[in-house]
Amino acid sequence: MSFTVAIDGPAAAGKGTVSKAVAAHFGFAHLDTGLLYRAVGRRVLEGAAPVAAARALRAEDLEGELRTPEVAQEASRVAVIPEVRAALVDFQRAFATRAGGAVLDGRDIGTVICPEAPAKLFVTASPEVRAERRYLELTAKGLEVTREEVLADVKERDARDSERATAPLKPAGDAVVIDTSEMSIDEAVAAAIAAIEEKRGEG
Ligand code: CDP
Asked: Is the beta carbon of 124 within 6 A of some atom in ligand 1?
């Protein structure tokens, strides 16, 4: 039986951490859909055309370093292009309906990719909190960035992601909003699990 958990939210809101923990808790598979856009963005930085890169995306393209600010920025630029998004739909929907349950995190999972998902979460936090978390994550990996640069990146991508015409970032009407600004990781994960348990009970 399939059961889809859709987790959306702005940049560096903790979707990845929450999604992984939720998937492990329920024994579901997890797909970070941001990686698909990042992989297309990286191919574009290497010289490829965006739509062709999205249509030709292969598993190998997801290997290596995709979590840099440059790749994130290019990801949000290619994510504006409707044909790029369309090229990635089938893979995401097939993943969502796999047997055994699936957690997908991104920007448009609850609104466009899986509007029928029984459990939808919108994980968010203030821009300052998100930028601080991303700053710590990037510097821990040895990347040389400043707090100001990271905050600017987060705000710029949020604006582009929210204002685009196709599949803009916004909570689905029936999404449970979890603001993690004042929560620890454990508290955010517990809140997500509780919200999903409730939806499972209804199913
Ligand atoms: O990790 P972070 O939240 O910073 O970003 P990500 O989830 O890896 O996504 C990178 C970029 O891909 C976003 O800024 C979006 O522009 C785009 N994206 C999207 O448009 N739709 C998705 N379902 C996932 C990501």
From this structure: no
